[in-house]
Amino acid sequence: MLDLYKVFFIPFLFLLVLLPITLAVPPFSEDVLGTFTEGLIIDYPAFNYHQSYSYFELIVHVYNISTGSAMSNLSTSCEGHLYNATGEGVMHVPYASSHNGNPQEFVFAVTNSSILHNGYYGWSIHCNTSYLGGYASGNIILTETGKPAATQNTEDELFLYFVFLLAIILLFVSFYKEDHNLASISGMLMIILGGYIIATGFSTLTNGLSNGIGIVLIGVGFYILLRSNIENF
Question: For a FRET experiment, which of 54, 69, 181, 224 has its CA 20 to 30 Å from that of 25?
Fold first, then answer.
């Protein structure tokens, strides 16, 4: 029979100490608005995140600062630039077209080939009439899911906790049922979990600490698997 204290409580307490989760969302730059009385205001929806490898449209509205009137592409032209995290220009839209035939909506279409890699991207828009001008700038973060990285990491970590908890439950049940097969499954789950943590890391922990946790899980998993198979003979 497996030694419950050695197999479960020691590694569990070890993991309990080593698994602090500190999730932080990277800060964003904010546009600084001047106190202009003339010019153009560019209004745009605040999309902070977008899914990589996917088509994207940014629709903006342009207003006259002094009158508040909406401008149209009949009298106003807008151009846009997209930059990657190193400041390299990856896309230039020299002229924003109207959106669905509405001359007061300017659309900037970002193609898939321009946003292939995850990370930060910066953009700037300039609009001009024959006598007025205005600009806007901002940034966007590309992720695999289009969600904040912290949200995705949390979902991944919850799945890891679920697998770990499942392995522990199976181990307990194997004691009470004296079922060596359940103990073997528990050991295999811990081995898989440990290998996954070594390969992908865990939360904001350093690589060394994540690797240490993974090695402990693999070692405990092999011990459970080996003991269950030996006692099964």
Answer: 54
- Given a contact cutoff of 8 angstroms between Cβ atoms, the answer to whether 168 and 12 are in contact is yes
From first to last of its 233 residues, the chain has per-residue pLDDT tens of: 445 444 444 444 444 444 443 333 343 333 434 456 789 999 887 777 777 777 778 888 999 998 889 998 888 999 999 888 778 888 888 888 888 888 889 988 877 666 667 778 888 999 999 889 998 988 888 876 666 655 555 666 777 888 888 888 888 888 787 787 888 888 888 888 888 877 766 665 566 777 788 888 888 888 888 887 776 65
Phi-psi region of 130 (alpha: psi -120 to 50; beta: other; left: phi over 0): alpha
Give me 230's structure tokens.
Answer: 């030996």
Residue of 14, 23, 13, 10 lying closest to 152 (CA atoms): 23
CA dist., res. 203 & res. 212, Å (int): 14
Q: Which tokens sit at 176?
A: 């009470």
Helices (H), 74-206: 149-177, 180-200
For residue 14, the one-letter residue type is F
* Amino acid letter, 20: P
Strand 102-110 to 56-64 pairing: antiparallel
